[in-house]
Structure formats: structure tokens, C-alpha cells
From TrEMBL, chain A:
Belongs to the amidase family. GatA subfamily. It catalyses: L-glutamyl-tRNA(Gln) + L-glutamine + ATP + H2O = L-glutaminyl-tRNA(Gln) + L-glutamate + ADP + phosphate + H(+). Heterotrimer of A, B and C subunits. The lineage of its organism: Bacteria, Candidatus Eiseniibacteriota. One of its GO terms (biological process) is translation. This is Glutamyl-tRNA(Gln) amidotransferase subunit A. One of its GO terms (cellular component) is glutamyl-tRNA(Gln) amidotransferase complex. Allows the formation of correctly charged Gln-tRNA(Gln) through the transamidation of misacylated Glu-tRNA(Gln) in organisms which lack glutaminyl-tRNA synthetase. The reaction takes place in the presence of glutamine and ATP through an activated gamma-phospho-Glu-tRNA(Gln).
UniProtKB/TrEMBL annotation, chain B:
Belongs to the GatB/GatE family. GatB subfamily. Pfam families: GatB_N, GatB_Yqey. Transmembrane segments: none annotated. Keywords: ATP-binding, Ligase, Nucleotide-binding, Protein biosynthesis. It catalyses: L-glutamyl-tRNA(Gln) + L-glutamine + ATP + H2O = L-glutaminyl-tRNA(Gln) + L-glutamate + ADP + phosphate + H(+); L-aspartyl-tRNA(Asn) + L-glutamine + ATP + H2O = L-asparaginyl-tRNA(Asn) + L-glutamate + ADP + phosphate + 2 H(+). One of its GO terms (molecular function) is glutaminyl-tRNA synthase (glutamine-hydrolyzing) activity. Residues 330-478 form the Asn/Gln amidotransferase domain. Allows the formation of correctly charged Asn-tRNA(Asn) or Gln-tRNA(Gln) through the transamidation of misacylated Asp-tRNA(Asn) or Glu-tRNA(Gln) in organisms which lack either or both of asparaginyl-tRNA or glutaminyl-tRNA synthetases. The reaction takes place in the presence of glutamine and ATP through an activated phospho-Asp-tRNA(Asn) or phospho-Glu-tRNA(Gln). It comes from Eiseniibacteriota bacterium. This is Aspartyl/glutamyl-tRNA(Asn/Gln) amidotransferase subunit B. The lineage of its organism: Bacteria, Candidatus Eiseniibacteriota. Its EC number is 6.3.5.-. Heterotrimer of A, B and C subunits.
Length: 499, 485
């Protein structure tokens, strides 16, 4: 391969070259910028903040201290709600304009410890509230497969960047599907780990009991390598699990003997035919690789969307109270007293979707409404969790759509919040239940009069089932061809083509 | 109409832990503003709390001391309101499932001990401190110091069990003693280690229904609590007497001017929107933790006072004073190994505590210069008539001031008690010779002059004469002279 094509490499292949001394860290880190970014970034706008000086400094540090590490020289675009000392952290919001944290999130520190280099901050829906990355104060991100369509959200920036080749790995956050849905829309892998497996310290909170840092990559093995680097207890996050993270080193072991649930009742209506076709393709591939399909009806709580939006908005209304203009970020300059400072700063600093959710959450927690809304939602949440537990008593993992639709057009749902909320229906369950979910690309749709679009499935598992999900993901990556399971990672990927 | 007051207290106890409630920053007082801060206690985006076990341990020990029920699972909650000294615009506290519930604090009032029932004790974080407003050029500026933000607090809430302001003061005094005894707080109200709000209502004497209450804030000394509540009861009585009704309100007490001001009325009451803190797991206290906390608890002040009374035959009052401070009780128990308990108690209450009060020093300062063994020697020297109380006290003064072994001071000065008439008679005679005036008065029937003459003899003896012997000798000598006249 020519040096110019380094950006096509998987993270593990790229790190191996760096460790072998065949590739300089700086060249690895800059490969995406020198390669596809020139063609794509101006149109896609995946990156909210970057800085060549900061990239060079981080590259030098990695080259000096971490040249033999597992992710040596791997460039990573991280969502703009993960605190970084070398780039602003603005959560796609005006209220944090110019804010630069004095500390690195735990996952950022672990990336650096493992030799990876943060190359900038990925665009996102403001405070991770959205499913299209259209609600960013820094402008929307577009889907590289069709620039008229959204990349999904809220972690649309990192998803799109990994898809077009800026970097092999990205980090996002997933509160109700914000990693898995954009991964599906951009045709890449997207893992939401078990709640408590990746530290949330330094992840700007949206819904604390739902938020998990998630991983984007073009290859199952890269998800596994990144998960291995990041997962595990963190003394700064009391909600991390205290036991060691599950071992994902055998992500290429195959799925022989595994059972996967097939709750086809969920996509009998309201799901686009292309998405259903993707599920069929995946099921056949898993069966070819030796897994067994277990068909059953699954009713993960008809109130899941209502439950999710009560819990998420209640927690968000509380978490976002700290953005008041007093200590950091944007401050309204015309405020005669402190009350005006609060209301004017927050009215001008937060976008409409964030204000809508703060109002909803404030209402749900208010005296007289708490029992009816928040408490009821907590009870419903417990039931939803039990329903997932019951399903996983019958199978090792479960197939499900990541989204009921293929990527939709920009502007298509921005005026209809409810339609936007309903598109989360297949992803919010994992957050409510605290279980892991992995989006796995299953190729592009046929060219029926429109550009081919990514198609994906979601694999859900019980707590700590990340090894199972990755094994299933790898089996699907090679189309169920067990002979290729252990083949070295290469540059094979359904790359978008620039039109 | 006669009214009776119903008062409940809400006390905040600032814990003397090394670090803050939810981060590793020092909890110390007096550092440069905004120097003991980190992303967590500043509430920076992305920061998360981690519970300080030592603070919870202190809460458990206080709960055990008060006989509260310690929940094996309690829950932190967020309490929301916007204020610039609150970094997250919510406070992490406990709400519907607090760590400690029930219990009571025994308080000695006069000769009786009364037990005041509690609702709960829970752990929470303190806010920062606002300084405002200050004039900067043409602008008013408020500044905030976040060093205090996140410092651990315990909130203790009593049942509405008080009827008199003085009871509240006695309760706070006892609470202060307890938190110091347990070593969990310095308990100084003036420094804000101990803070108190009072809920006050009144009702016609003899009735049961509760009146509308007001919440009294800014009571920053024990005396202020008593005065503030007294003022509020008087205000409510005036309102009712003039045919008005009590409005639910929060009032601030201005101790300097003995005045109350309304801070906010019911219409402006906060909706704190409590909900369980999702960043913290439920707080689990297992049997092993409880047992370890109980181990650290040691003997409580009131139990120890009872033991002192029973074991050493002390009056309840003495035992109470000795058990006012743990160090003092410890010191007493060391001294009493070598001297009579009641005598030791008397010496401590009259001499030692007088000295400490006058010099503003503590028991440990005393014990450094006057170790128990030396104190016992001095006390014993009077009992065995080796020295007079006067000389013993003067040696004690000196030892407290400069240290040193009283036995060698006695030897150096030749201190002993003089009671032989051979020794004292010459002094008595000399005093009579030198003071013909008072002697004439005495002989003329003004016997009170005798005290003056005794004093003259004591002076001549360098304080070593036993006063009763001197008195006896003087009377005999004067009688002899009267007869000889």
C-alpha cells in the first residue's frame, strides 16, 4: 500500500505499523487530514473543533511515550461532549462557546495512555439531544453517502468522520441511541457498552443514568481493541462497575453454537423494507456461521419511549442547570441582576430543542407531578429491564433494527419533535435496561433510483455481553464466512463515493 | 390569651474531615479564596461526585450516639435552586431515604435530663460563600469563594419538641458538646461549623393543633438562637393579639439589632424538585461498617457522666461538668487514680477551669504543663496536710504557667503546712504587737477584726500556716491578754 492510503487502514493495522517502526506517529495521525478530509470535510462538516498545533503536540507526546502501545498513533475524533484539555468542549452549544476544560475525561486519558491521538472534536446535536446532528450551534453534519441526508445523531460527527476515512476510530456518547443510530446511518460499527463499563467522568452529562460513552469503527476488531483500552472501573465515576471489564480479545472467535433472538413482531409494521431486508441478510449470515435463530415475540414495554423521555429530560433538566453564565461559557452581557443573568444567558445560550427538553424535565420533577411522571417512569423502567432479562433467558443476543428508517433528509423531521423521538424506539431500550448494543453494518442498499445508503442491524445482549456482540459483529463483517473470521484486518469497507 | 410555642430545629454540622464530601479537595478553612477547588466541587461540565467514606462514617457515629436507626441503604438526592454560590445549581443531599432516622439527644436542663426527639440526620454538601455587593468603579460586584463548596455537612432535624427558647439553647449546647466529643466537628457556631434554623409556631396554651410556622434563619450563635426565637414568638403573639393571622414565611434574624426581617413569603417558596442523584449508587452501610463505627464511638458523654456519678460518688452536677469535654473527662480519670475523686473534681472545677477560662486555653494545654500525676501530687499535699491550700494553689499557678515538677518546687521552697504552736505562736504575738489598733477593736468587742489578724499571721508564715490553728492561737492569746488587763 502506498503511504497515501494509510487512512484506509484499520486502527489495529495502523498501530501495528507504528509499533514496527514502519510508520511515524505524526504521519498516522495526519493521514486522514492529508487524504479524504480535503475532499469531504467541507461538505460533511464532521469536525466541530480541531487544531493542527494540538494534533502535532499530541502526536509528539504519543511518539515519545507510547510508540509501543496497543493503539499507537491511532487518530481518534471524539464527540464534542467529552472533556479535552487540548480542544474546546462545547457540546454543540452556544452556551459553551470557547469553553476549554481544565481536565481530560477518563476515556480521553485512557486513549492517550494507549497511544491514541485525539485529532479534534466531532460535531453533535446540542447537548446530545437529537437524532440527526442538525441541532448543532456549529451547523449540521451531513451523511457522506448522501449529502442531502443526515448522518444520524446525536454523535453524527464522529460517525461520519469514521465513515469517510478521517480516522479509523471515533468516540461518541449514547443516551438513547446516539452512537448506534448514527453508526447505522453512516454504515460503521457503533458500540454502546453495558452501563458502568466505560467511565462517564468528563462526559458532559445529558441523562446520567442512561449515558454511556460509545465507540465507532469500520471494523469489529477495532471496536474490540478500543473497548479493551477504555473499559473498566474508574475511581472518579461511582457508577462504573467495580469488576474487571469482560475480555473482548476473542472478538474473532465466531458464533458457532450461539443463539440469537429474532423478535420479528417488532418490524412487522413501521419499519422500512430496506431495514427489514438488512435484518434478513444478517440472520442468514449468522446462521451460516453456526448460530441458531430463536424466534419469539418481544414486547419491550409499550411505554418505552414515554419512559425514556421522562427519565432523560428529568435528568437533563438537572444536569444542565449548571450552565448559567456565572462561571464559564457564554454569558449574556445585558443582565441588570442575577436572575436576569440566568434567564437571558440560558434563553440565548441554549437552542430550542434543549430548551424544550429542560422544560419537559423540569415539569416532570415538579412538586405535584413527580409521582405521576418521574416515579411512574422509574417503575416502568424496572419492568422494561425485566422484560429484556426475560428475553435473554432465551438467547445469547438479539437482532433488532438500529433505526426504523434509512438516513432521512435534512430538515425532514426538525419541525416534528415527536417523529424524531419515535425514531429512537429500537435503541432506547438498551439505555433503559443498561445493556450493551452494537450496530453492525450489513452493506449498502441497492441503487433503486437513489444513491446507495448504508444499512445496518443492531445486536443487543445482556449485561457484559460485549464479547458476544463483537463475535456476532465480526461474523457479520465477513458475511458469515467462517474461514475469514481470523483474517487480518485490511482496508475493505463499503466506502462512500464522492459525487 | 396565653400561648405556647412549638419549636423545631434544623441544625447543620460542618464536619472536620480532611477532604470534601464528593471530591479529594482539602476541606480546611482559611485557604486563599478559590484555591481548594477542582472540577468536581466547581461543578464543571462532566465532573462526577464520589462519596467521602469518612464523612459517612462521622454521620453514622453521630446517628449511633443519638440512638437513630441507621439505614442499610440510603439514597442521595439532588435539591435544585439557582444561586451563584452553588456550582451545579443543585445540592447533593438526602431526601426521602436519609442515612439516620429517629433517635434523641439527652440534654441536662437544671437538675433534670430531658430527651429531645429527632426526625433525621443526613449527609450533604455545603455551598460556596458569596461576598456582596462590592462597588467596583460604577458597578456593583458580587464575588464567590468556592473553597467551602462541597465541604461535608450533616443536617440534623428535630421533632417540634421545644416549647421554650432556652430549651433550644440547651439543646444546641449539648449538640455542640456531642459533636466535639465524637471528634466529628469543631462545633463553633460563630465560625459556622454549627448552624441552626428554627421553625416556630404558637398556639393557645393547652391546645394540640399546630399553628402556621415561620422559618427563622441567620441564627449564628447559641445566644442568637435563643434571642431570635424569643423575638419571633413575641412577634407572632402580637400578630394574633391584634387579630391578624400568621403567614408562612422565612425570616432573617438580625442579632445586632434584635430584629426580624421577612426573607421570602410562601408564594415564593422554592420547589426543589428533589430526585435521586443518578451519579451516585445507593449508599449501602453493612454490618461490618456499623460495627467498626460503633467501635470508634467509645463511651458517650451522658453515659460517662452517669458512670462518674456512680463509680466515683460525684454529684450529678460535677459529673456533668467533667464530661463536658472528652479530654477533660479523660484527664479527670487519670488524676483520680492518685487522689480522692471529690477533691479532684473540686480542684478541676474551681482551679483548672478558672485558669483555662481566664487564659482562653484548652485541656490539652493544661495537661501539657500539669500532667495528671503532678496535679494529683498537689491535691494530695493538701489532704495529707503537707501544704496549705494557699501554698498548693500558688504552686499550681506556677506549674500551669511554666511547667515543672511540684515535688521539687515544694522541696526548694521548703513548703510545708505549719501547725505547731511552737512555730506559730511567735508569729501570732508579733502580729498582735504590730497591730495595736485592730487588737483594741477586737478587745472592744469587734470580733470581726480577727480575720484581719489571721491574714497578718498567714502573711508572715509565707502562706504555710494552717489557718484554723492560727485562728485558735490568736483567740487564745487575745483572751489571755484581755484577762491580763
Amino acid at each position: 500500500m502506498s503511504g497515501a492510503d494509510v487512512w484506509r487502514l484499520s486502527a489495529t493495522a495502523l498501530a501495528a505499523r507504528v509499533r514496527a517502526g514502519d510508520l511515524a506517529v505524526a504521519d498516522a495521525v495526519e493521514s486522514g487530514w492529508r487524504g479524504p478530509a480535503a475532499a469531504w470535510e467541507a461538505d460533511v462538516h464532521a469536525v466541530a473543533h480541531t487544531d493542527p498545533g494540538a494534533r502535532a503536540a499530541a502526536s509528539s507526546a504519543a511518539a515519545r511515550d507510547r510508540r509501543t502501545a496497543p493503539l499507537a498513533g491511532v487518530p481518534v475524533l471524539v464527540k464534542d461532549n467529552l472533556c479535552t484539555t487540548d480542544y474546546p468542549t462545547t457540546c454543540g452549544s452556544r452556551i459553551l462557546a470557547g469553553y476549554r476544560p481544565p481536565y481530560d475525561a477518563t476515556v480521553i486519558g485512557r486513549l492517550r495512555d494507549h497511544g491514541a491521538v485525539v485529532i479534534g472534536k466531532g460535531n453533535m446535536d446540542e447537548f446530545a439531544m437529537g437524532s440527526s446532528t442538525e441541532f448543532s450551534a456549529y451547523g449540521p453534519t451531513r451523511n457522506p453517502y448522501d449529502l442531502g441526508r443526515v448522518p444520524g445523531g446525536s454523535s453524527g460527527g464522529p460517525a461520519a468522520a469514521v465513515a469517510y476515512g478521517l480516522c479509523p476510530v471515533g468516540l461518541g456518547s449514547d443516551t438513547g441511541g446516539s452512537v448506534r443510530q448514527p453508526a447505522a446511518f453512516c454504515g460503521v460499527f457503533g458500540l454502546k457498552p453495558t452501563y458502568g463499563r466505560l467511565s462517564r467522568y468528563g462526559l458532559v452529562a445529558f441523562g446520567s443514568s442512561l449515558d454511556q460513552v460509545g465507540i465507532f469503527a469500520r471494523h469489529a476488531g477495532d471496536v474490540a481493541a478500543t473497548y479493551a483500552a477504555l473499559a473498566g472501573p474508574d475511581p472518579h465515576d461511582a457508577t462504573t462497575r467495580q469488576t474487571p471489564a469482560p475480555d473482548v480479545s476473542r472478538w474473532d472467535r465466531g458464533v458457532a453454537g450461539l443463539t440469537f433472538g429474532w423478535p420479528a413482531n417488532l418490524w412487522r409494521e413501521g419499519v422500512e423494507p430496506d431495514v427489514v431486508e438488512g435484518l434478513e441478510i444478517a440472520a442468514v449470515a449468522l446462521e451460516r456461521a453456526g448460530a441458531r435463530r430463536v424466534a419469539f415475540d418481544f414486547m419491550p414495554g409499550e411505554y418505552a419511549v414515554a419512559t425514556y423521555y421522562l427519565v432523560a429530560t428529568a435528568e437533563a433538566s438537572s444536569n444542565l442547570a449548571r450552565f448559567d453564565g456565572v462561571r464559564y461559557g457564554f454569558r449574556h452581557d445585558d443582565a441588570p441582576d442575577v436572575r436576569a443573568l440566568y434567564t437571558r444567558t440560558r434563553s440565548a445560550g441554549f437552542g430550542p430543542e434543549v430548551q424544550r427538553r429542560i422544560l419537559l424535565g423540569t415539569y416532570a420533577l415538579s412538586a405535584g407531578y413527580y409521582d405521576a411522571y418521574y416515579l411512574t417512569a422509574q417503575r416502568a423502567r424496572t419492568r422494561i429491564r425485566r422484560e429484556y432479562e426475560a428475553a435473554f433467558a432465551r438467547c445469547d443476543c438479539m437482532l433488532m433494527p438500529a433505526s426504523p428508517t434509512l438516513p432521512f433528509r435534512l430538515g425532514e423531521k426538525t419541525d416534528d419533535p415527536l417523529a424524531m423521538y419515535l425514531s429512537d424506539i429500537f435503541t432506547i431500550g438498551a439505555n433503559l435496561a443498561g445493556i450493551p448494543g452494537l450496530t453492525v453494518p450489513v452493506g449498502l442498499t441497492g441503487a433503486n433510483g437513489r444513491p446507495p445508503l448504508p444499512r445496518a442491524v443492531q445486536v443487543l445482549g445482556p449485561e457484559d455481553a460485549e464479547p458476544v456482540l463483537l463475535a456476532a459483529g465480526r461474523a457479520l463483517e465477513v458475511g458469515g464466512d467462517t474461514i475469514r473470521l481470523g483474517a487480518a484486518h485490511d482496508t475493505e469497507f463499503a466506502w462512500p463515493t464522492k459525487r | 390569651m396565653a400561648y405556647e410555642a412549638v419549636i423545631g430545629l434544623e441544625c447543620h454540622i460542618q464536619l472536620a474531615t480532611v477532604s470534601k464530601m464528593f471530591c479529594g479537595c482539602p476541606a480546611e478553612f482559611g485557604a486563599r479564596p478559590n484555591s481548594n477547588v477542582c472540577p468536581v466541587c466547581l461543578g464543571l461540565p462532566g465532573a462526577l461526585p464520589v462519596t467521602n467514606r469518612e464523612a459517612i462514617d462521622a454521620a453514622i457515629r453521630l446517628g449511633l450516639a443519638l440512638g437513630s436507626t441507621i439505614r442499610d441503604v440510603s439514597v442521595f438526592a439532588r435539591k435544585h435552586y439557582f444561586y451563584p454560590d452553588m456550582p451545579k445549581n443543585y445540592q447533593i443531599t438526602q431526601y426521602d431515604r436519609p442515612l439516620c432516622e429517629g433517635g434523641a439527644l439527652p440534654v441536662r436542663i437544671g437538675d433534670a435530663t430531658r430527651s429531645f426527639a429527632l426526625i433525621r440526620v443526613h449527609a450533604e454538601e455545603d455551598t460556596g460563600k458569596s461576598f456582596h455587593p462590592e462597588r467596583h468603579g460604577d458597578r456593583q460586584v458580587s464575588r464567590v469563594d468556592f473553597n467551602r463548596a462541597g465541604v461535608p455537612l450533616l443536617e440534623l432535624v428535630t421533632q417540634p419538641v421545644f416549647r421554650e427558647p432556652a430549651e433550644c439553647a440547651a439543646f444546641l449546647t449539648a449538640l455542640r458538646r456531642l459533636v466535639r466529643w465524637l471528634g466529628i466537628s469543631e462545633g463553633d457556631m460563630e465560625k459556622g461549623h454549627l448552624r441552626c434554623d428554627a421553625n416556630v409556631s404558637i398556639r393557645p396554651a393547652g391546645t394540640q393543633a399546630l399553628g402556621t410556622k415561620s422559618e427563622l434563619k441567620n441564627l449564628n450563635s447559641i445566644k442568637g438562637v435563643e434571642k431570635g426565637i424569643t423575638a419571633e414568638i413575641a412577634r407572632q403573639e402580637r400578630v394574633l393579639a391584634s387579630g391578624g393571622t400568621i403567614e408562612q414565611a422565612t425570616l432573617l434574624y438580625d442579632a445586632d439589632h434584635d430584629k426580624l426581617a421577612v426573607m421570602r413569603s410562601k408564594e415564593h417558596a422554592h420547589d426543589y424538585r428533589y430526585f435521586p442523584e443518578p451519579d451516585l449508587p445507593q449508599l449501602a452501610v453493612d454490618a461490618a461498617w456499623l460495627a467498626a463505627a460503633r467501635e470508634r464511638l467509645a463511651e458517650l458523654p451522658w453515659t460517662r457522666a452517669e458512670r462518674f456519678a456512680a463509680e466515683y460518688g460525684l454529684p450529678a452536677y460535677d459529673a456533668g461538668v467533667l464530661c463536658d469535654q472528652r479530654e477533660l473527662a479523660d484527664y479527670f480519670e487519670e488524676v483520680v487514680k492518685e487522689a480522692d475523686p471529690k477533691k479532684v473534681s473540686n480542684w478541676i472545677m474551681t482551679e483548672m477551669l478558672r485558669h483555662l477560662k481566664a487564659t482562653q486555653r484548652g485541656v490539652s494545654d493544661w495537661a501539657r504543663n500539669v500532667p495528671p500525676h503532678h496535679f494529683a501530687f498537689i491535691i494530695r499535699s493538701v489532704e495529707t496536710a503537707q501544704a496549705t491550700a494557699t501554698s498548693a494553689k500558688s504552686v499550681l499557678d506556677e506549674v500551669f504557667a511554666n511547667g515543672g515538677d511540684p515535688a521539687s518546687i515544694y522541696a526548694e521552697r521548703g513548703i510545708r503546712a505549719r501547725s505547731s504552736s511552737d512555730e506559730l505562736l511567735p508569729l501570732v504575738r508579733a502580729a498582735i504587737e504590730e497591730n495595736p489598733g485592730p487588737v483594741a477593736q477586737y478587745l472592744g468587742g469587734k470580733t470581726a477584726t480577727l480575720g484581719f489578724l489571721v491574714g497578718q499571721v498567714m502573711k508572715k508564715s509565707g502562706g504555710q500556716a494552717v489557718p484554723q490553728t492560727v485562728k485558735d492561737l490568736l483567740e487564745a492569746e487575745l483572751a489571755r491578754r484581755a484577762a491580763a488587763r
